[in-house]
Design brief:
Elements: H1 3-29, H2 32-53, H3 59-78, H4 81-92, H5 106-114, H6 121-132, H7 137-143, H8 148-164, H9 177-196, H10 208-224, H11 229-242, H12 268-284, H13 290-303, H14 312-325, H15 329-343, H16 345-353, H17 356-359, H18 363-375, H19 379-392, H20 396-407
Helix pairs in contact: 1-2, 1-3, 1-4, 1-5, 2-3, 5-6, 6-8, 6-9, 7-8, 9-10, 9-11, 10-11, 11-12, 11-13, 12-13, 13-14, 14-15, 15-16, 16-18, 18-19, 19-20
Region (Disordered): 76-98
Domain RNA polymerase sigma-70 region: 16-80
Domain RNA polymerase sigma factor 70 region 4 type: 111-162
Amino acid sequence: MSAIDAADAVTRAHHEEWARMVAHLARRFGDLDIAEEAAAEAFATAVERWPADGVPPNPGAWLATTANRKAIDRIRREGKRDDKHREARTVYDDDPSEPPGVIDDERLRLIFTCCHPALAMETRVALTLRMVGGLTVPEIARAFLVAEGAMGQRITRAKAKIKAARIPYRVPSAADLPARVSGVLAVLFLVFNEGYLATGPDTGPVRHDLTGEAIRLTRLLRALVPDDGEVAGLLALMLLTEARRTARVSASGELVALAEQDRGAWDAALIAEGHRLVRERLATGVAPGRYQILAAINAVHTSARDVRDTDWSQVLALYDQLARLDPSPIIALNRAIAVAELDGPEVALAIVDRLEDELAGYHPYHVTRADLLRRLGRGRQSRAAYDKAIDLAGNTAETAYLTRRRDQLG
């Protein structure tokens, strides 16, 4: 077997097996440090041996066996086997008083542990990407523009807090599950959004590594909780957004607005999958949640062959429904864009201006206002709004787009 074939096999196994391995090791040995290091050592051993010995018939089983041996060796070296096993029984085992549930997957337990509400949101993101996604500390640090040492400390402190606070390694009870799933989805959505519109000046404007990882983890979560409508909604939202990725940045590195994108360049397979998920949720007759409504809005946009074919009345109706669930100023701002298409920019501008106190530091507010003022022929005010948007924008492609739009005003 060539070294390239072996390397491809290791990469494929890492994507498929990392979360399962770490979850199994954490459950067995009761220590996230041991789980992480043993899994990493197993893959390092595969990198060394598979090119010479060949890829084993069952790579996952080979890696799991190797990782278990690595963990046991470490515990023996440290002379803490009994302590670790006691900790595994008391901290990480199921609560014996908890009735067995329908959901019983070690990876799901790991996700809920990493996304526990006792941890700060930024810590949940980092820990999830490391323990569930298998990203390295340098990769996570680069993704969120944090020094590698600081990111390593963040992850180390998170694991220590889980141990010190005796955060249980288990799926939440049925009563707590909806709220906890919501917390997991918030983490995954945050990861996706950072990739969708990267905020770092020294990164690419779109980070496919992050959007791809968020989609992969959301697919995993959906496989583990297939009946959860909001998980399906978030997956559909991500797919319909990711489908437009190649059309979102021009050859010159400038952001391309939705209305100007080449719709023939959109990924038809991702759009079809996203639409199918939206239809499946609608067919249940269950009232949709926030992510499902956002996915439905994206489904309307991606159904139109041309921007002029967009069903803005349906978009507005969906935003009205979303505003009842989430009456936030950001939802009101997005709703105003649909209002502008139906009732004109003057009506929309009146709505947007009422949001100034709450959204003065939010650059999409100024982008929306600049566009409405431009459409109304109020060039000087539009230019000032573009200036504010450019000052607040952190994405290089978006800054280039806004600068061009501003300069076109003369």
